[in-house]
Specification:
Helix content is 40%, strand content 20%. By secondary structure, it is of the alpha/beta class.
Length: 488
């Protein structure tokens, strides 16, 4: 008998509702609804359109149940962002978007004031982190009217069930968890005058968030379906679905962001890891993932949007083909440069960067996209070297998961630059991980090893073999980026 669960995946640019069936052998995914998730700007501030996302959530629940009677719902989202609830349990305002500029410079300021911040939290120090967003709340508005802070997947679960809790994997993106205890770092929060009272109790991935509220059951015509706390952070759902045959592997969850990392027994909290901007996050059953956050396919997406604004509409397949055929002299960009972190005219910014660094300036559409592709592959190579240096390990294989697994050029360039075989897939890694945690929770799948066997049987995995390492190209890229950093 088939069993059904519903995986809801809210990404930073789009969301999907995926109805999942399991017949004791294979997992089958059926996308029943897809929607756009775009920020809104109000008075110079960037927000998520939460009322619209709630409508999409309700539509997802109804459309899926019309097809099959699923018995569990799991929600994963991007990290760091949150909503604030008032005393009556209402959302005070739309959640702010992590690309809002209000936190610019705070990470450096706070980490200078608290030198052991990385050693205490193990989290990559970035302006977008929840900690710095809450510091802006502290300084600009305060917390008098705030009863509870809920991270985005927990906020959706609260809407569904009226239950308040913080799933551990999404909480690990905040820079407010102790790396030692994996619980809220109360001393840090007290030091920064962030009231611990607004933070919900932490729950484990795979546990229950409750069932659909009576009010929502009546509104949507649904039974009391269980809501399961999957890994709320989409990266951890994707990492859980990696078709790994060995503990020594790299996963690359490649979507709007690229999350490049590995699994470790314990957090790595050294100064070397801190200086290399590596992060320790928590996955299913408190697994530590040691990873680097890298700007990802968002750069391709935003460049595509700019060309659309100019009346040039390219499909992603056409973009890849233009980049493959490009014969221009190579150039590269530093993906960490803040000019590439916000929406806007990315092609012009790439040209400006190349002009400033004395590189050939990409003039054609193909040259612009090739520059992005090779810069990503170069960044993955650098991240691989950094992780191997910090862990004193060699990782024989890279698993590319998510949307990037569809991009043959990116997969091959990653294999070439990193000189490691690359397996591509599952493309829907986040949905597989989300679903697998639910299936474990309801007892349909018994063990984690059975999860990996089931996913491998359910999905076609493609392997890319490294070609000759483009060492001259790679050294040139490093020169342009590192010489610029050293001179700045």
């Amino acid at each position: 008998m088939k069993r059904y669960v519903l995986a809801l995946d809210f990404g930073a640019s789009s969301g999907r509702a995926i109805l999942v069936s399991f017949d004791d052998i294979k997992i089958k995914l059926q996308e029943v609804y897809r929607f756009v998730n775009e920020p809104i700007e109000q008075n110079g501030k960037l927000y998520w359109d939460f009322p619209k996302l709630i409508i999409e959530l309700e539509t997802s629940l109804k459309k899926a149940y019309d097809i099959a009677p699923y018995e569990s719902i799991g929600i994963d989202t991007w990290g760091v962002d949150y909503g604030l609830l008032s005393e009556n349990g209402k959302l005070i305002e739309n959640p702010r978007h992590y690309r809002d500029t209000r936190t610019t410079g705070l990470a450096e300021k706070i980490s200078s004031a608290i030198p052991d911040l990385y050693a205490r939290t193990g989290t990559q120090i970035m302006d977008i982190n929840t900690l710095y967003q809450l510091l802006c709340q502290r300084d600009n508005v305060g917390f008098d009217d705030v009863q509870t802070m809920l991270l985005i997947p927990d906020l959706f679960a609260y809407y569904l069930t009226d239950t308040i809790s913080a799933e551990r994997s999404i909480a690990s993106t905040t820079q407010m968890l102790s790396a030692q205890s994996s619980n809220w770092d109360e001393k840090l929060l007290e030091q920064l005058h962030i009231p611990i009272r607004i933070l919900p109790p932490i729950c484990e991935s795979g546990t229950s968030k409750g069932v659909l509220s009576t009010k929502l059951q009546k509104k949507l015509g649904l039974p009391p379906i269980s809501v399961t706390a999957v890994c709320g952070h989409d990266t951890q759902c994707a990492a859980f679905a990696a078709p790994a045959q060995t503990n020594k592997h790299i996963f690359l969850s490649c979507g709007t962001w690229s999350l490049f990392g590995t699994e470790c027994a314990t957090p790595i909290l050294t100064n070397q890891a801190k200086n290399l901007a590596l992060s320790n996050e928590i996955g299913y059953e408190k697994t530590v993932t040691f990873l680097k956050n890298i700007i990802g396919l968002w750069l391709i997406q935003e460049t595509r949007r700019e060309y659309q604004r100019r009346g040039q509409n390219y499909s992603f397949a056409e973009i890849e083909e233009l980049a493959v055929r490009n014969q221009s002299t190579p150039c590269a960009i530093d993906l960490d440069d803040m000019r590439f972190a916000t929406p806007g005219n990315i092609p012009e910014r790439i040209q400006d960067y190349c002009r400033e660094t004395g590189q050939p300036i990409p003039e054609t559409v193909g040259a612009i996209f090739r520059c992005i592709y090779e810069s990503l592959a170069m960044k993955y190579r650098i991240a691989l070297e950094e992780i191997e240096a910090c862990t004193d390990e060699t990782y024989p294989i890279i698993h590319i998961l998510g949307g990037g697994a569809k991009d043959r050029l990116l997969c091959q360039l990653t294999a070439d630059f990193c000189q490691r075989p690359v397996t591509a897939g599952p493309i829907e890694a986040t949905a597989y991980g989300n679903a697998a945690i639910q299936l474990l929770s309801i007892g349909a799948i018994k063990t984690i090893s059975a999860v990996h066997e089931t996913i491998a049987a359910s999905e076609k995995i493609i392997t890319y073999t490294p070609k000759k390492f483009p060492s001259i190209r790679y050294r040139m890229f490093q020169y342009f980026i590192h010489s610029r950093k050293n001179n700045s």
